[in-house]
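Re: weekly structure request thread

Next one in the queue (273 aa):
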Amino acid sequence: MHKIARGAPPLTLIGPEGPAMPGQPVLCTVNLALPRAYEVRAVRVEVWGVLRRVVGSLGWGPLRLWRWATERVIRTHHALPIGHKLGPGTASYRLEVPLPADAPPTARGRMLQMVYTLRARLDIPHAPDRWEVAPLRVHTSPPPWEGLPPSPREESISVRLEAPRTLVAGQRVQGSLALVASHPVVLNDLRLDLVQRERVPPREWAFTVGRVAFPSVSLGAYAERVLSFSLGIPPQAPPTCVLPHHCSIQWSLRLTARGYPRLAEVSVVVGTG
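Done, posted below.
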């Protein structure tokens, strides 16, 4: 036992250095610094996964307030029995907490969030429990790309998008657009948008989080025009995922121009680095 530093907390929780993976145990360390002797029943560590989603709003326009619903959808725990007195002094315990194989990843959208925390408790009979909370990140492998969603296209203009279909938050994507028109046309305000879609039944929201702009593009009749682009994926972009209650976060690349609401749109998968 070592002397306790003045003001030291009675319990410190240290979570894993990197993200946790579903189906694998979460490794953590509980350090105790007890100023006196306690009769300790057990040291307990829990993983909480909380789903937050928008379920309504109050007001209109810029004064609108969103109503959020919060629900704990994941809870696992591990207890280390003690059954005797501890302290005064310090002690350290290493525990493994199971994480379900179907646990969704950590995701922080605008209308939808999945957040995890580690919670450690010092179970003391007939006294308030000592406890501590630490954040936890959960990563999953990105789901496979499922191809193009059905979307209307301008029949007089053909678009071919050459770009990776699996993207990583915080990185840049290099690609190209090949455009062919059946007659001469000028496309003004041509834009390639990275669109984040958040579904909270029965509603769905779409947010443009990245854009490449081509001010004016001239196309000749049946003459292919190739445009290169570089698009940055925001570092805090939530991953493509399906969450409880049929909620989901999906991504797409959408090409539009003035007078052409949607020239083309393809689904993409965003993962975490």
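Confidence is low (pLDDT under 50) at residues 1-8, 148-154. Residues 162 and 176 are 5 Å apart (CA to CA).
Next request, please.
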